Amino acid sequence: MSIRPKDLPPVPEQTAAVARKAFPKGSLAIRVRDHLGGVFTDQPFAGAFGTRGAPGLSPGVLSLVTVLQFAENLTDRQAAAMAVRAIDWKYALGMELADTGFDHTVLPRFRARLAEHGLERAVFDRLLEHCKEADLVAAGGKQRTDATHVISAVRDLNRTELAGESVRAALEALASAAPSWLADTIDVAEFAHRYGERINGWTMPSSRTRREKLAHVFGQDALTLCRAAYAPAAPPWIRDIEAVQTLRQVLVQTYCLHTDARGREVVRKREAETDGVPPGSIRLASPYDTDARWAAKGEDLFWYGYKIHLTESCHAPAEAEAEAEAEAEAEARADILPPNLITDVMTTDATVPDVKATAPIQQRLDEHGLRPGEHYLDSGYPSAGLVHDAAKQGTDMVTPALLDHSAQAKAASGFDKAAFTVDWKTRQARCPEGRTSSGWYPVTQHGRDAIVVEFAKADCRTCPSRGKCTAAARGNRMLTLRPKELHETLAAARAEQKTDSFKTRYKLRAGVEGTINQALDVTGIRRARYRGLPKVRLQHAFSAAAINIVRLDAYWSAHPLDRHRTSRLTRLSYQLTS
Asked: What is the mean pLDDT of the chain?
């Protein structure tokens, strides 16, 4: 397939006339074409298509179809049908009224090509650049970030189902890629009887003994297949099949191979307490989506899949005095404000903590010239180092700092770290009773620089406030501090978050919850449509672009989102008292 990069085709006169007649007030698709036609061009996708071969459909047109598809939460079949029967879609795509469109299978092939060439964010980035040029987003303003969980497109499997389904997936792949080799290696009839249908826990034996025996059979079959695939006589390309590599990893993480008293090799299931299992960040849970992971949040939320982080521009809420102004003036001011637009979208597997996303998000915003002056985040995103580094680059991270987790701080009694005075010049600390530390030891803990401060045992044992300070068996108090700049940054942040001004300022962060809810309602980001991290990233990038065009459409049509959550009665009260 080849392309010659070009812009969207012009709108045929007949299509334009009928669309204007059918939609006198316009529609989302029509306004997207009128305002954003230059965003959806072929040029960004040139690297994913060749210059020789049969010409294919315009990737710019397909990207616009995909954005509209996500804006209306349609399937591929529905999106292809809309390109045939919806007049406003025909207008947006520059199609004749009699154009029969394209087959729905074009869309998954287009997405696969984008994911293969790392172009998942191409449309989102171009749309963001257009909004930047239109002064709808800019650097130095306020932005806020939050995350939500994403459920994988594959079904949940327990360990026994995973083992059996991994064998089945490998057999299906080998039956397609190397049928002759597979027929010479295994008893096809026996394996077809066992793995012909998908492995389902509901149809497994009810007794525990028979289930354990079945798990042993799955392990033995996995070992037989892996040994055959990795044997010297096997074709080398056999072991390069993804399903075979996945089977090998599942075999290692699920089973142990040992020799019994008779000298026979025995495959048995791993026990977490005695044999150990891989950490969740690398443990496979399905042979059909090897990027998804199990994760938990709190005691109630467990999911298998991914996590998405959305960052959007935002504006400070109206103050009490502004709310007391006349309604007409308030509405006029609301029309002036640009819409809140998503400025970054990041997708990771479910095990990646939020704090690992902070620096990449800010780095991408910086690369697009959109580094915020104030970045509002919840308590999962900051660390002392991140807050300090962001401040040096001009970003104030408005976020609850990590709390002191010492026993004294948790109990809210006794002497926590804040009760000690640190003299960085003399490299000493002074306790509330006036005793000076006797040791100052720079160390490395968990890959980070730290300082351990020790007080003399003789001072601590005779101290009248020892019960408020330490209960350590060694008898003396020790403090673990971060380097000076980080320690002072963290201390200042902890002190600031206790003030009323910070609490009032931090209320602005809550608005991003509405953006996540809108993304759930409009595009369904809570559930992955596709399998594999690259395609889930593509889904989320197009979802973010779709949310932006929905908000831009409201802005263009002079129907901005209501920024005033007070009731009409309250507004009337403000007007009468002003």
From this structure: 89
Residues ≥6 apart with Cβ < 8 Å to 30: 19, 23, 88, 91, 92
**Cα 469 from Cα 478, distance rounded (Å):** 10
Residues linked to residue 527 through DSSP beta bridges, in sequence order: 151
Nearest CA-CA partner of 540 in 522, 554, 525: 525
Q: In this prediction, what percent of the chain has a pLDDT beyond 90?
A: 66
538: which 2 tokens?
Answer: 């593509």
**pLDDT tens string 384-430:** 899 999 999 999 999 998 777 777 777 777 888 888 999 999 999 99
Q: Is residue 260 classed as helix, strand or coil in its secondary structure?
A: coil
Torsion, Cα 494 498 499 503, to 10 degrees, reads 100
Helix, coil or strand: residue 366: helix
Specify the range with the lowest mean pLDDT, choosing from 40-49, 302-311, 356-365: 40-49
Show the tokens assigned to 264. Answer: 């026979």
Q: Which two tokens stand for residue 256?
A: 């142990």
Q: CA 209, CA 203: separation in Å to the nearest integer?
A: 15
- Are 538 and 114 within 8 A, CB to CB? yes
- Mind spelling out the 3-state secondary structure of 393-457? CCCEEECCCCCCCCHHHHHCCCCCHHHCEEECCCCEEECCCCCECCEEEEEEECCEEEEEEECCH
Three-state secondary structure call for residue 342 = strand
The structure tokens listed for 105 are: 């299978």
> Tokens standing for 395?
């970003």
pLDDT score for 287: 96
Q: Which of 147, 192, 195, 172 is nearest to 244 (CA)?
A: 172
**Token pair for 210:** 């028979």
Two structure tokens written together for 190: 């026996």
DSSP secondary structure code for residue 417 in this structure: G
Amino acid at 101: G
Query: Tokens 């459920």 appear where?
Result: 151
pTM given for the model: 0.87
